[in-house]
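Lecture 7 notes: from sequence to structure.
We start with the chain below.
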Amino acid sequence: MLAILTFLLYTSIVGAITYWFTRREKLETSDGYFLGGRSLNGWVIAGSLMLTNLSTEHLIGLNADAYRYTVAVMAWETTAALAMVLMALYFLPKYLNLGLTTIPEFLTRRYDQSTQFIASLLFLLSYAIAILPIVLLFGASGLEELFDVSTTWGVDRSTATWMLVWGVGILGSLYAVLGGLRAVAISDTVNGIGFLLAGLLIPYLALRSIGAGDLWAGMTQVYQEHPEKFDITGDEPGSFLPMGVLFTGMIVNQVFFWCTNQSIVQRALGARSLAEGQKGVLLAGCFKLIGPLIIVLPGVIAFHLFADELGEEGAMLAYPRLVKHVLPTALTGFFAAVMVGAILSTFNSVLNSSATLFSQGIYTHLFCPDASELQKVRAGRICSVVLAVAAMTIAPTIDTTGSLYEYLQQINATFFGPMLAVILLGMLTRWATPLSAKVTLILGPIVFYVLVFGRGEQVQSFLRHQFSLQSDVHFLHLLAVVFSLAVIGMGVISWWKPGKSKTLPTRGHYVDMTPWRLANHVSAFVVIVTLLCYMFLAA
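Predicted structure tokens for the same chain:
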């Protein structure tokens, strides 16, 4: 009963705070609904960025990978901080100066409307088949493992998963559909505070338990008994995340995700000034540096405690088992509310971005070029509902064997390389043509899919034979190859059929473009701490 009460209390507080700060919002215009009226401050942006990205697929998925492999998987977090520095200093000033609502809108101005249409479809496809269903599935699985929902409700696990998926999905949809970006961002910020507190509490309690009340003694014991787990290089044969990918596909992945991905960039596009936008992005980058303490270290601790009991096949149960082992009963409801909040944050943020993409890039292009502001908002809401129902239907059917986190990254990478090539060449050159952009956006994902999924085994066999390799080529290396081919292909097509160069007219300064005075200092701090982290753990 206490757990239920604390769950309801925290969830109600989040809802009440969100309502209070958004009750006078004007949601009838595109800027009001999709960008929060361009009124977001740095702390709200930071909280929303963190919770849009971090969810149960990280808490359970990355901790499962750390349990099964090593802390090398923290590269997904630490290298993200470097990409966020690039976003704050280079990409964000360009976006705000152009007055963009969506990234595909940039493609319209640089290439043509057909390029925007294709890009919007690809974004929506990646959200529909990867992010939305997997976020719901991870959330439902985590809640089931942590709180034994099936037993409490007297149903089987499959039925409990369906119930949880639809329950969380409907709640998340209400935030996104009814409240717009500002409601999403504020709820993300409040949930983000709870996420940080609850996430740090788990390794703290676990290490104190191992060290008989001494936190450092617990950490020392785990490290001394499992030093191999703290190898950040990932250089063992057939590594799950070898060090080499940090210099190839990981760069492509992180730059796309944190600098050009609509569901992430949209938070910063809603900034009330460049300074607040940079502050939000860089603060989120600092939060990323402590992320491994929440979504990697607990996996190693769980290995220390439960390896004999769970075995390798029980990796997905590692984090839930650790939480149940160390969390006091009085805090169970609070932790459940934080987990639900993390799921909601990612789910409703992606839904809001999907609504923006559909309304601005597809609805006005195909169906109603002269749509009013209210019609655009209504179209976005309908898109959110359709995607939410699709995700809630697909999620319980996904195969949960293997690493779901890596599966999510592989599906996303199908679109990342070609999309980044088109955006970067659009920004950095004047010679890239609309034809080259469209061909790249269509053929690029097909090439990656064939290399990794369609003919993956044959491709890996060929590469092992040709280059005398003992293990498969990591999919991030293949992502770098596809990105390089996309850049070369755009160059060849643009040379073969050159087009008239197109400038990027601005829409005027919608916000104050004065940079944040601490932007360079905080950026340097993030870079130095990231490098020191690798130097220390690789020693």
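Points to note: The mean pLDDT is 82. The chain has one domain: 2-402+529-538.
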